[in-house]
Amino acid sequence: MRVFKSMALWFDSGVTTEPVPKEEFWIIEWTRIVPLIIMHLAVIGVIWVGWSPVAVSVAVAMYFIRMFAITGIYHRYFSHRAFKTSRFMQFVFALLGASAVQRGPLWWAAHHRHHHRHSDEEEDVHSPHQHGFWWSHIGWITTRGAFPTDYKAIPDLVKFKELRFLDRADLLIPVLLAIGMFLFGVVLNAIWPALGTGGFQMLVWGFFISTVCLLHGTCTINSLAHLIGRRRYETTDDSRNSFLLALITMGEGWHNNHHMYPGVTRQGFYWWEIDVTYYILKSMSIVGLIWDLRPPPKAAFESAEAPAAAAPAEPPAIDLPSRVQPNAVA
Hints:
The protein is mostly helical. The protein has one domain (34-329). The protein is built from 15 helices and 4 strands. The longest helix has 27 residues, at 53-79. The chain is globular. 42% of the residues are buried.
């Protein structure tokens, strides 16, 4: 019966709301993660489908489009509410975020807010300092305790029924995207055979390879961004700033900046701290799709004597300021 219940969760992740007992929290849910395993194994299909410039280009484009969906939408909007938008655009954003195959918007936001409350403490399920590198990178999402969505952590989001639907049917958009990629390759092969692509090649490159790279690129912030890089702010966790990770994740690598001031839209505070996600969000604000982008406070640029209290007051359930020691700027 447990296997059948796990299989049912592939299609409706909210089919059960039973709390996970503490003694079962860290058990790997093998049936539940079959889709994750299949997604990784499907990458091997490149041996048979080969490659083409158009397929590789689509894979790269899908990586960065959906990386923005994670960084700008799931993270900065749903998790931290760092800007505002309309309900319609919120739903469009949620659809784009769901295409990244990293569960639904409510699940993602709830887990991230929990991370900020307990960053690098024992309760932080993806802290490399508490649980090791590989567990913080990918292992934690395979556990029985990680699958439920904590609605109590996201009262501002759970009231939207369309978001609850996307959160429960979190495989719907990825499956539709995979089918779309296959059909896209079929059409290209029919009307422009000189491109040398086809349905299965586009499926492997445009969906599976792109999605797996996207997942592990995102996971570097959970793992590597707490291990490598420099610390501008002496927060009580071990978050760090990394130029390399910022390039991979379109600006999320400025992780120490973010943990010091989690409620701001911009994570690269200085001009040399490349933050492509912020540039896109700023452009969207210019045309009126989003508004009220929260800038870094003046204290972010001041000397070590600037008190932590200079950070702007934020709703704690959303912005979850990091715990900061005296003399916050290192």
